[in-house]
Amino acid sequence: MITTLFQPIKIGKLELKNRIMRSATWDGTADRDGSVTDNSRKIYYELSTGGIGLIVTGFAFVSPMGKATTGQFGIDSDDLIPGWKLIIHEVHKNGGKIAMQIVHAGTNSGYLLAKGIALPAVSLVPELAEKADHAMTEEEIEGIISDFVAAGLRVREAGFDAVQLHGAHGFLMSQFASPLYNRRTDKWGGNPENRRRFHLEIIKRLRKALGQDYPILIKFGVQDDQQGGLTLAEGIETCRKMVAAGIDSIEVSAGIGQAILKLHGGEALKTVFRERTAAVKRAVDVTVAVVNGIRSLGTAQDILKTGDADVVSMSRPFIREPHLALNWQNGEKSPAKCISCNKCFHVLQRDKMGLNTEKKQ
Ligand SMILES: Cc1cc2nc3c(=O)[nH]c(=O)nc-3n(C[C@H](O)[C@H](O)[C@H](O)COP(=O)(O)O)c2cc1C
After folding, report:
1. Tens digits of residue pLDDT in 56-108
2. Which residue is closest in CA terms to ligand 1's atom 23?
3. Is the CB of 58 inside a 6 Å radius of any atom of ligand 1?
4. Using an 8 Å Cβ cutoff, are 294 and 300 in contact?
């Protein structure tokens, strides 16, 4: 039987009504403390009626030192839990599921750097000279792992159906995985086994804290697109090890390098991402999601038909058309109206749209 986009699928014990995922998307609507606002609610209420199988929230910081940008959700305090309950309720009422993506930005925090805060780096590599003032101590690393675990417990407490780790796009997990940013000589770096230790420790401890059944997902930069960076072979081995440690699903993306810049640039990289996703899919036996540049029902169906991925994830198309999945399900054949102009990505643009709540304070 040919798999179609509108067939249900299981991620661990979590059943999705279809194979369409809204990839994590920062929207600039959070308050300064990371809490949801009326603007956040508007966006998620719209999405909740759009027929999406799994909605992943914009990245939420696990600690104030892990915050990347303005208007970003946080999950570093119990006070942030109640704000999500109504949103989660609406998603469930409409038959959807919702996961929260959690992140530590590492040195990739325009927000803290703009405040003049020097950040700890995985290693003090020359490229980070202006951003970081020291390499993380073991104590700091352990502290961040604990922050991830505490955040995961809050995600479950809020009623989210799953937690997704942000292990891509140059943020802290990407930095640990990358030989370019991780030149440590202790147990956290120096060889592939040590470079993936941070990931595996977070996953193992989260699994222990959340129990066997709670879905733990990751968006993983399986490869750096820069010379000397994480290779696909090493990234795939990390995927295997993460699955063994308890990961239920992998959404495949980019780590450090040019592709992240282009990631937000259009459809050109669609094939590149499809190929690396297919490589992950061949290597692991958990649900694998493809993301980047998918704009038509035909492409989405073809990806499933060929078995290159189990789930099709999109970000920008749902900003313009939150009901795109429902339209496709109802027989609409036209591709997404998103033209990948990236105006959605720019903080200033969010300001103009009146969505960047934090900036208005
Ligand atoms: C405005 C905007 C915000 C984003 N925020 C996140 C985020 O919070 N976490 C994440 O993993 N990726 C984020 N991304 C990347 C997207 O999830 C996705 O990987 C990328 O846009 C490619 O998919 P697309 O072509 O369907 O948009 C963001 C992208 C955009 C345009």
Report:
1. 999 999 999 999 999 999 999 999 999 999 999 999 999 999 999 999 999 99
2. 292
3. yes
4. yes
β-strand 119-121 against 132-135: which pairing, if any?
A: parallel
Average pLDDT over residues 24-43: 96
Residue in the block written with tokens 């509108």: 6
Task: Give residue 342's pLDDT band: very low, low, confident or very high (50, 70, 90).
Answer: confident
Q: Is the CB of 166 under 6 A from ligand 1?
A: yes
The reply to whether ligand 1 has any atom less than 6 angstroms from the CB of 293 is yes
**Which residues are within 8 A (CB) of 212 and not within 5 positions of it... i.e. 6 or more apart?**
none
CA 292, CA 298: separation in Å to the nearest integer?
Answer: 15
Nearest-5° Cα angle at 206, 203 to 212: 95
* Contact criterion met (CB below 8 Å) for 261 and 214: no
Position in ligand 1 atom list of the atom nearest CA 295:
26
CB atoms within 10 A of CB 200: 17
Q: Which of 20, 21, 22, 25 to mutate to test the pocket of ligand 1 (most atoms within 8 A of CB)?
A: 25
**Residues 76, 1: Cα–Cα separation, whole Å:** 45
CB 280 within 8 A of CB 254: no
Query: Among 133, 146, 137, 134, which residue's Cα sits nearest to residue 63?
Result: 146
Counting ligand 1 atoms within 8 A of each CB, the residue from 20, 21, 22, 26 with the most, and so the one to mutate, is: 26
Which ranges of the chain would DSSP assign to H, the alpha helix? 38-48, 82-93, 110-114, 138-158, 172-177, 192-195, 197-210, 232-245, 258-263, 270-283, 297-306, 316-320, 324-329, 347-352
Contact 219 CB / ligand 1 (< 6 Å): yes
| Res. 115: pLDDT tops 70 | yes
**pLDDT tens, position by position, 224-273:** 999 999 999 999 999 999 999 999 999 999 999 866 656 555 556 678 89
pTM of the full predicted structure?
A: 0.95
pLDDT given at position 269: 66
Atom of ligand 1 nearest to the CA of 344: 1
